[in-house]
Design goal:
Shape: flat
Radius of gyration: 33 Å
Order of helices and strands: HHHHEEEHEHEHHHHHHH
Distance between the termini: 110 Å
Structural class: alpha/beta
Strand content: 5-15%
Length: 398
């Protein structure tokens, strides 16, 4: 009796072990089946089946990291249930990582890429130039952005953003000098620096005086640092145009309010589009309300609105609530303002290029603006005449 019970227990244990082994085998077979299905259905961009495809956890993690970095996704995306289910539906074999793990992966990858770029800059045979700007977020927090420009052995231009970090207040010249000097030492480009381009803020001027003095003492600058401090041409043009717009703002006020009115509701916008079709006006897009701090947006608003002046006139006849319709005289004034701003817009577009050198183009654009301002015939309109004179004084100053 005792022996039979012992035999039965052994048989039961053996059966249980066999059952566990069979379940594991089935699980492995299931995973292998999924992988084989994936291998047989994965296609290349050319539509060719990739028979030699093999799943690799590390490769998939690198692609996940690249996706988050490339598109600026939040690191917490790996914790989203919807994202996890989507990834699992594509490949159930992939083991999803946690937010902490992907954060560590990002930090590690940053250090790897930083070292690669450090090696690139070390091997640059020429000198490097920097563009620098202070940026304020919606939370009124200050950030410093520094971009490095250089050419390789094949004379190909390169641009790399090396610094984008929080900057404590106050943003004094001394504080910015300390931050920039640490940056130069961190990237080991103190002795490679050629020029720094920035806007005309007073703290930038103070910072550059300190930086120039520091690097001259170390004998790291060319021609005694005369070429170190370069003022941004686009920013200079921006200051001149903003100064002019302060005077001629009443001229564009009605057009701005007209655009606001049309864009104020869906029904008005649809009505305006119907009028454009009825009048057979050719315009690729409707005007948008300009941003007061960006004069180029004002130029674009005037440019597009002037093409649709007949539509605005018709809207004034059909809609009694629309009380901002400019008169013929005001439209003519806006045309002259647009014509004046056009030359600045074209020059700004040229000197703001990032895929080609702009230093060799700068003089020609500035000289053309000088000729336009000097050859302006005194207008009968006092506002326009005052605007041109004010812009001429600003031009000579800068």
């Amino acid at each position: 009796m005792h022996c039979n019970a012992e035999i039965s227990a052994k048989r039961g244990a053996g059966t249980s072990a066999m059952s566990t082994h069979l379940r594991r085998c089935k699980a492995r077979m299931s995973v292998n089946r999924v992988v084989n299905q994936l291998k047989s259905t994965v296609m290349s961009p050319e539509g060719i089946a990739l028979k030699d495809w093999r799943f690799n956890q590390d490769t998939s993690r690198k692609e996940l990291l690249r996706m988050i970095s490339l598109h600026g996704f939040p690191l917490a995306v790996v914790d989203y249930d919807g994202f996890r289910r989507f990834v699992s539906s594509l490949n159930p074999v992939f083991k999803m990582v946690s937010r902490r793990t992907i954060t560590d992966d990002c930090s590690k990858k940053y250090q790897e890429e930083k070292q690669v770029l450090l090696d690139v800059l070390e091997n640059v045979k020429g000198r490097v130039s920097l563009t620098m700007d202070m940026w304020t977020s919606n939370q009124t927090l200050g950030y410093m952005c520094i971009t490095c420009h250089f050419t390789d052995d094949d004379w190909k231009m390169h641009k790399r953003t090396l610094k984008f970090s929080f900057m404590k207040t106050p943003h004094t010249g001394v504080a910015m000098f300390n931050a920039v000097l640490r940056f130069l030492q961190e990237w080991n480009i103190e002795d490679k620096l050629f020029a720094v381009t920035l806007d005309n803020a007073s703290n930038n001027n103070a910072m550059m005086k300190l930086l120039k003095s520091n690097l001259l003492e170390k004998k790291m600058l060319l021609v005694k640092g005369k070429l170190l401090h370069q003022r941004c041409a686009a920013h200079v043009l921006n200051l001149i145009c903003k100064a002019g717009l302060e005077i001629i703002n009443p001229i564009v006020h009605k057009i701005r309010e007209s655009v606001k009115y049309v864009q104020g509701s869906t029904s008005r916008k649809q009505k305006f589009e119907e009028i454009i079709q009825q009048l057979s006006l050719s315009c690729e897009k409707c005007p948008k309300v300009d941003t007061c701090t960006r004069w180029n947006s004002t130029y674009l608003m005037l440019k597009i609105s002037f093409k649709l002046r007949r539509a605005f006139d018709s809207l004034g006849q059909q809609d009694q609530e629309y009380t901002f319709a400019p008169t013929s005289e005001e439209w003519e004034k806006s045309r002259k303002v647009r014509k004046l701003l056009k030359i600045f817009f074209a020059a700004t577009t040229v000197v703001s290029g990032t895929l080609y050198p702009t230093a060799n183009l700068h003089f020609h654009e500035i000289w053309e603006i000088r000729l336009v301002l000097e050859n302006q015939v005194p207008e009968a309109d006092a506002e326009l005449a005052e605007t041109v004179q004010y812009m001429q004084r600003k031009f000579r100053r800068y």
